[in-house]
């Protein structure tokens, strides 16, 4: 159920006290510079700003909105766990040519404020959701097409449950947190006792704590463990731009990371899964769910959503040749699919007016 930017068990089972970050060769300025390199290839004009929300928090935001597209329904991009706005580098130009696009670092991630989250899963979820709503109000968006990847997909659904009149369409890309935890019986798939013991021993630790533990070895560790990210962005970068960005994103104060752990059960699934709550989502909100054909995420949850909402629009798309990071693995296909959905939203929005005037 879970895909993290540095996928290694030992990283999930280590912890470093908050007073150790100086051991890591990072800073806010280095994160800013790493993001700048990720976005250097963007040709479209855009602005960047910290959008203030409550309690002195701020959400780092990229805004693409030319005069030619300002009348279209905007797309808001919510990144996944351990990611940030720079991960949309292969999508921003294509999407922004046709409509306004907003990409934000979610609360507790990237360059956004990293506050203390509640240790209660419901309250932590609410903190994320209300930060998105406060951001929307501050930016002045009436309604949006909400696109979320991984954790961003989970939060997009949670937001839509609470603020349905603000969401014209939900696009969920490899969403985390849909299914309930499946209890594995010993007969079906026995779990070794030593794995159970380690899981119990290390369950209090943050998912990416190991990356902070290794200090100066961290950048090389990311390059070694996740060389696939260099391939995903090979059309843009030939150096270590992507791995450097991943590193600086994930060795800052583990605020959103801690919240994610609070919301995650021992099996990696959500403590408050979405499928049992899907009846709380307004039936008028259309949903498009995009999976990668090579992903380890089970697309059966998408089919379950479609069965649970027979009177609603639910489309499940499988992108060939893509893994969990569909938007980076097959960016042209992904951009095309998303734009088709967006065009349909505007077409549906204009139909009543056209009929009225005819």
From TrEMBL:
A single GO molecular function term of this UniProt record = 1-acylglycerol-3-phosphate O-acyltransferase activity
GO CC annotation, single: mitochondrion
Q: Which residues form the signal peptide?
A: 1-18
Q: Which UniProt keywords apply?
A: Acyltransferase, Cytoplasm, Differentiation, Fatty acid metabolism, Lipid biosynthesis, Lipid droplet, Lipid metabolism, Phospholipid biosynthesis, Phospholipid metabolism, Signal, Transferase
Q: What class of enzyme is it?
A: transferase
Q: Which reaction does it catalyse?
A: 1-octadecanoyl-sn-glycero-3-phosphate + (9Z)-octadecenoyl-CoA = 1-octadecanoyl-2-(9Z-octadecenoyl)-sn-glycero-3-phosphate + CoA; 1-(9Z-octadecenoyl)-sn-glycero-3-phosphate + octadecanoyl-CoA = 1-(9Z-octadecenoyl)-2-octadecanoyl-sn-glycero-3-phosphate + CoA; eicosanoyl-CoA + 1-(9Z-octadecenoyl)-sn-glycero-3-phosphate = 1-(9Z)-octadecenoyl-2-eicosanoyl-sn-glycero-3-phosphate + CoA; 1-(9Z-octadecenoyl)-sn-glycero-3-phosphate + (9Z)-octadecenoyl-CoA = 1,2-di-(9Z-octadecenoyl)-sn-glycero-3-phosphate + CoA
Q: Name one Pfam family in it.
A: Abhydrolase_1
Q: Where in the cell is it found?
A: Cytoplasm; Lipid droplet
Q: Which residues form the AB hydrolase-1 domain?
A: 74-329
Top-level taxon of the source organism: Eukaryota
- Where does this protein chiefly localize? cytoplasm
- One of the GO biological process terms: lipid homeostasis
Q: What is its EC number?
A: 2.3.1.51
* Purpose: Coenzyme A-dependent lysophosphatidic acid acyltransferase that catalyzes the transfer of an acyl group on a lysophosphatidic acid. Functions preferentially with 1-oleoyl-lysophosphatidic acid followed by 1-palmitoyl-lysophosphatidic acid, 1-stearoyl-lysophosphatidic acid and 1-arachidonoyl-lysophosphatidic acid as lipid acceptor. Functions preferentially with arachidonoyl-CoA followed by oleoyl-CoA as acyl group donors. Functions in phosphatidic acid biosynthesis. May regulate the cellular storage of triacylglycerol through activation of the phospholipase PNPLA2.
Q: Which family does it belong to?
A: Belongs to the peptidase S33 family. ABHD4/ABHD5 subfamily.
Protein name (Swiss-Prot/TrEMBL): 1-acylglycerol-3-phosphate O-acyltransferase ABHD5
């Amino acid at each position: 159920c879970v895909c993290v930017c540095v996928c290694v068990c030992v990283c999930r089972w280590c912890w470093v006290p908050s007073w150790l970050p100086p051991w890591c060769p990072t800073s806010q300025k280095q994160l800013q510079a790493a993001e700048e390199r990720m976005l250097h290839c963007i040709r479209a004009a855009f602005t960047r700003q910290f959008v203030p929300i409550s309690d002195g928090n701020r959400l780092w935001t990229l805004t693409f909105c030319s005069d030619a597209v300002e009348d279209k329904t905007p797309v808001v991009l919510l990144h996944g766990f351990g990611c940030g706005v720079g991960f949309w580098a292969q999508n921003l130009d294509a999407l922004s040519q046709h409509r306004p696009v907003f990409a934000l670092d979610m609360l507790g991630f990237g360059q956004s404020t990293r506050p203390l989250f509640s240790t209660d899963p419901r309250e932590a979820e609410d903190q994320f959701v209300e930060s998105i709503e406060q951001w929307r109000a501050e930016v002045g968006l009436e309604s949006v097409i909400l696109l979320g990847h991984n954790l961003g997909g989970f939060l997009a659904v949670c937001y839509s449950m609470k603020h349905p009149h603000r969401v014209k369409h939900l696009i969920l890309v490899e969403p985390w947190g849909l299914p309930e935890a499946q209890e594995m019986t010993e007969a079906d798939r026995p779990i070794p006792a030593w794995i159970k013991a380690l899981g119990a021993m290390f369950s209090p630790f943050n998912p990416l704590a190991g990356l902070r533990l290794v200090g100066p070895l961290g950048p090389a560790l990311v390059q070694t463990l996740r060389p696939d990210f260099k391939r995903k962005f090979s059309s843009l970068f030939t150096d270590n731009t992507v791995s450097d960005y991943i590193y600086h994103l994930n060795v800052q104060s583990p605020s959103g990371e801690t919240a994610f752990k609070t919301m995650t059960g021992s099996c990696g699934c959500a403590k408050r899964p979405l499928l049992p709550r899907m009846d709380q989502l307004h039936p008028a909100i259309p949903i498009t769910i995009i999976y990668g054909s090579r992903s380890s995420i089970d697309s059966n949850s998408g089919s379950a959503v479609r069965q649970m909402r027979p009177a609603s629009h639910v489309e499940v798309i499988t992108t060939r040749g893509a893994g969990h990071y569909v938007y980076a693995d097959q960016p042209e296909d992904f951009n095309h699919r998303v734009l088709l959905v967006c065009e349909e939203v505007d077409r549906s929005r204009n139909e009543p007016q056209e009929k009225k005037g005819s």
